[in-house]
Recover the amino acids of this structure.
């Protein structure tokens, strides 16, 4: 397939479809396929050093949420029949049996959150904020600008944090590699990060005002290029899983849900549905 | 020399064959008819040549309550129906588990308790939950029919198990391909794709 530019609207449908799947599917076997497909789309996006660092850190944050959800549920929820360890009952709140059911429940919950983050990261690597703003009707452009600035916040903050850290290293600040050093480094980075963030916010506001933001003037519309075969195929590839999942959810088939309590059981898996979910990885076939 | 080897081998084979034949398990059928008409059928396998009716019930895997009464062994509860402590009286009627044996293709109400009967390979026993005077009999099912149903059920279970394994193989393949491709793309250096 010839390299081409996939329309931003196709990416919007892709993101909406993945988020629909994330909200409907609670079966860990299907969840791993969705997160795998979204992760593949993220990994296959053209790499740019200045962005990948920020989104990489964001994904690490999502992964840490996944682990926190797992550990938190194990030590707080004592329900379930498969006991893997027992903490002394005299320990307040966490004392009691630690069960495999609680671990799986925490994993399923964490995967839901993590898949959403991976999908957003993949989407943002493929679609620029201005492309999103231009996609919306003129009446919604004010709101869209705010959304695009919000989208930009994560990579911009990541860049700023990296610059501050580099500047500190050049000036001889070395906090070491220990946990205490990491805490000290975080403390030393937060203040300049907030100051830099405020400065950037003021610069953004000034530049928006100078470009007529709020005056009612319309942004230049993008050229309405023709839809390529890739656009149509990817649009269908994004639509189909969502339609199938919604039908499965209303029809009560496909085993989208999974309940590990009271005793662990094998989650059901339908290969046909699993292959349908692989369509989320279809954008990998088209390199931008 | 070679004759000795052939003879020894033949003896060993014969011994193994004989041993296997001697250890061939016996099988007997069991039909349980609940008060609501629900039917439970089992083919019970046992090592010995014969056993009692209560022995067959114990080996069936169905929950039961068999107590030693003055007149022999009494069966109060089978597969969750009945009262483990005695007969059940409801609406002025006394309900109990009635015991039947299949003789020449017909059910015969056993004149003796299940602790005194002899069950051999190919026999079929039945238990019906009914009240005194109801005179209900179980549906006629030969050992061959029961064994055929059991084989079909086992085959279906094996098919389900095999289908479950193949489903998971598909999932492992999908997850493996996605993970492998992701690692491949993550391993690229910036600019590799150009």
């Amino acid at each position: 397939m010839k390299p081409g530019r996939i329309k931003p609207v196709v990416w919007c449908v892709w993101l909406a479809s993945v988020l629909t799947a994330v909200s409907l599917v609670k079966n860990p076997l299907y969840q791993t396929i969705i997160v795998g497909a979204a992760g593949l789309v993220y990994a296959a996006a053209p790499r740019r050093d200045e962005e990948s660092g920020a989104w990489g850190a964001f994904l690490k944050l999502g992964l840490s949420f996944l682990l926190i959800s797992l550990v938190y549920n194990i030590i707080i929820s004592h329900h379930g029949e498969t006991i893997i360890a027992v903490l002394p009952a005299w320990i307040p709140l966490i004392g009691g049996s630690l069960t495999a059911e609680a671990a799986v429940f925490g994993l399923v919950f964490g995967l839901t959150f993590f898949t959403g983050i991976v999908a957003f990261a993949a989407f943002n690597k493929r679609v620029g904020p201005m492309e999103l703003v231009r996609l919306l009707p003129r009446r919604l452009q004010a709101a869209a600008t705010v959304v695009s600035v919000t989208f930009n916040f994560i990579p911009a903050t990541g860049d700023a944090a990296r610059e501050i850290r580099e500047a500190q290293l050049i000036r001889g600040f070395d906090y070491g590699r220990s946990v205490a050093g990491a805490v000290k480094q975080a403390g030393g980075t937060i203040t300049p990060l907030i100051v830099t963030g405020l400065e950037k916010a003021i610069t953004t506001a000034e530049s928006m005002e100078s470009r007529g933001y709020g005056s009612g003037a319309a942004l230049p519309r993008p050229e309405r290029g023709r839809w390529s075969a890739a656009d149509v195929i990817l649009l269908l590839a994004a639509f189909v899983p969502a339609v199938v999942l919604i039908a499965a959810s209303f029809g009560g088939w496909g085993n989208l849900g999974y309940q590990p309590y009271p005793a662990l059981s094998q989650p059901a898996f339908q290969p046909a549905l699993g292959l349908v979910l692989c369509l989320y990885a279809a954008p990998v076939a088209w390199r931008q | 020399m070679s004759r000795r080897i052939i003879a020894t081998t033949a003896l060993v084979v014969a011994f193994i064959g004989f041993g296997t034949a001697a250890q061939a398990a016996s099988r007997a059928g069991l039909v349980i008819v609940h008060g609501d008409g629900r039917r439970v059928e089992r083919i019970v396998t046992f090592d010995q040549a014969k056993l009692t009716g209560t022995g067959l019930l114990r080996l069936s895997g169905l929950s039961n309550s068999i107590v030693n009464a003055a007149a022999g062994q009494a069966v109060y509860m089978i597969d969750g129906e009945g009262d483990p402590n005695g007969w059940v009286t409801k609406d002025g009627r006394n309900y109990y588990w009635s015991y039947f044996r299949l003789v020449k293709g017909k059910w015969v109400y056993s004149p003796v308790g299940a602790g005194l009967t002899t069950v051999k390979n190919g026999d079929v026993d039945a238990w019906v939950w009914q009240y005194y005077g109801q005179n209900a009999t179980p549906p006629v099912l030969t050992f061959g029919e029961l064994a055929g149903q059991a084989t079909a059920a086992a085959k279906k279970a094996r098919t389900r198990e095999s289908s479950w394994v193949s489903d998971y193989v598909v999932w492992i393949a999908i997850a493996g391909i996605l993970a492998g491709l992701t690692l491949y793309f993550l391993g690229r250096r910036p600019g590799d794709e150009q």
Observations:
- Chain A has a mean pLDDT of 82.
- Chain A touches chain B at residues 29, 32-33, 36-37, 39-40, 43-44, 46-49, 52, 266, 269-271, 274-275, 278, 281, 284, 287 (CB under 8 Å).
- Chain A has nine helices and two strands.
- The two ends of chain A are 11 Å apart (CA to CA).
